[in-house]
Amino acid sequence: MENIILSPSKYIQGSNSLSNIAKYAKKNAFIIADNFVMSITKDIIKESFKKENLIVSFELFNGECSKVEINRLKEILKDKNAETIIGVGGGKTLDTAKALAYYSNLPVIIVPTIASTDAPCSALSVLYTEEGVFDEYLLLPNNPNIVLMDTNIIAKAPARLLASGMGDALATYFEARACERSNALNMGGGFPTKAALTLAKLCLDTLLADGEKAMFAAQKNVCTKAVENIIEANTYLSGIGFESGGLAAAHAIHNGLTVLEECHHLYHGEKVAFGTLVQLFLENAPIEEIDEVFCFCKNIGLPTSLEDLGVHSIERERLLEVAKLACAPEETIHNMPFEVTPEKVVAAILAADGYSGS
Fold first, then answer.
1. HSE of 219 in the Cβ direction (CA atoms, 13 Å)?
2. Cβ contact 81:28 at 8 Å
3. Distances (CA, A) of 210 to 161, 300, 312
4. Tens digits of per-residue pLDDT, 285-312?
5. pLDDT tens sequence across 124-168
6. Catalytic residue among 150, 254, 308, 353
7. Which of 16, 50, 78, 110 is the most buried (most CB within 10 A)?
8. Burial 248-263 (b: 16+ CB within 10 A, else e)
């Protein structure tokens, strides 16, 4: 079995980077974005393509990354002189752009307007039905050609989204470490490289060093060096780290928590943050490590207890439902370097919840 690392061909990050997008695209482009994102980015993109004497066309994204929406955009694309696809906005817009590019055999540029997850760099699109119900994972043969992060735009997003991104990124190192210990395969079907594991550790170190400072700035919608570092950690370091390092218990526990209606209002990274604490109890990590993660979550406003998740009534039967879903046969929790059972997961959830109240 080979060691495999996955990565976008080019990662670009900087203030007002969007104004240079045509210079990087070098081709006529088809842009998709939702109504709000279009209103704040369209003029910048048009001006950039005008400077480079390239053609650009725009289409509003309907809001759901579904096969119906992808097929609609494919039909519109046929009449355009487009040589590349550009997705601008949040996760569903970006996943739709990746899928559209794949089915149209065109390169894709991903332009996130928030830094709330590590998905932009990945070779994956999550497809839903028109009603918003999960449909399937579309595994793509390649990562995006370019990921472009305009820090000036991202800094204007709600601070909670940046914190959620840090919650998602927080799991990266601990899950990659577990996969390394168990010789589990990463998302590319190979073993993690040393480079991937090093980036995963750098991701954690960056979060601990700059996360709290970044939140002070994000709450004022300004971009400091700490915010720039966290944007890179949330997007690139975590993106390479999770895909090339592998997933383990934290994300599986996140998936288990989706069975609880009380958690539906939470962002992905908020649930992953609590899942990370649970994973640390599950693997009996040193108390110093648990304390460091706990304090980090507290300081930037991430959940550290069931109460924080909105679960006010702790019933073992309901937690067992969470644990059973987290331990489904195909789940990444089985990448842990020991056997995991639903009963062990319930115990770890209660221990993590108890630690928060101690």
1. 8
2. yes
3. 16, 11, 32
4. 999 999 999 999 999 999 999 999 999 9
5. 998 988 887 778 889 899 999 999 999 999 999 999 999 999 999
6. 254
7. 110
8. bbbbbbbbbbbebeeb
Which of 95, 118, 150, 168 is labelled catalytic? 168
- Of 20, 14, 24, the C-alpha closest to 229 is 14
268 is catalytic: yes
Residue among 348, 319, 345, 350 at smallest CA distance from 333:
345
Amino acid at 317: E
Write out the two tokens for 96. 């739709």
312 catalytic per annotation: no
Q: How far apart are CA 197 and CA 1, in angstroms?
A: 17
Clarify whether 168 is annotated catalytic: yes
Q: How would you class 194 by CB atoms within 10 Å of its CB: exposed for 0-12, middle for 13-18, buried for 19 or more? A: exposed
Cα-Cα end-to-end distance for the chain: 45
Q: How, if at all, do strands 29-33 and 56-60 pair?
A: parallel
